[in-house]
Amino acid sequence: MRRVNSHADKVLQTTQSTSAAARSPVAASWSRSANKHGLDPAERRAPERIENSVLHHRRAALEKFLTVSAPRLDLLFSLVGQSGCGVFLTDLGGVILDQRLNEADTSAFESWGLSAGADWSEEREGTNGIGTCLTEQRRVIIHQGEHFFSRNTGMSCIDAPIYDHDGQIVAALDVSSARADQTEAFNRLIAAQVAQTARAIEEANFRAAFPTARIVVAESENAEAATLLAIDNHDLVVGATREARRVFGLDPKAAIVPRPATDILGREDGPTGFEKAERAAVIRAIARADGNVSQAARQLGIGRATLYRRMKRLGLDER
Question: Which pTM value belongs to this model?
């Protein structure tokens, strides 16, 4: 007869409750893990790792994204690495593609199954930072006993989703720690850094996707999301981040159909205040060019005549 595992018993008891999932996001994830994916919380198998050739293919598919992400991962690791944390970046399937670890901690994380090529989707690993973040498409903290598998209850995982230039979820950013003394308060501090880094990656990836466009930063009540629009030299909006799509009522999934920027941004008195930001950007460009409109237009990536038209619309003269 199998030895009773107290954590596993708690998980299974919760998944059998008809109301627990409605009261708790963790319980809802436990329920998916057991009832939808057929996982056993007492199972001791190691996390699944994909073959190196498959990992190489998955990395190649996101090569530009990984290149943009790398310096931001380095910065995040410089902030959390000395506290025994590892930094991991996955693809949409929950497979770890990149990581930052102290050499002294590498073997410990590998023993937990946290290394490149490991599959941490919720379908495979039940409730965990990476998989649950991707499934629910939101920031999560899965602290120790909130994990589904008993073997993962020594870890704390802090995650944030990352969206691509088309507004679709593309990755999860994870900071994990297997320190027994990791506190929930410390997790919340790390979560702020994870969210900030996820936004920085999303912004850098968006700018890289529209290298010749003018990028306009919008106002949004969601400070944790990148709210950017890409505008071409014809003054057409050709790209929008997920949050920008929400703010301006654009289709959250379909490709952006180019539309005049003025149709989306509205006037200065509009609810977003976008034209104020555009006016400030034009003024800054002219100031940097010491009043030379032609030079300012080159800085903005638009034609001189286009800039004059925009200045007129914004109520600016050559002075």
Answer: 0.80
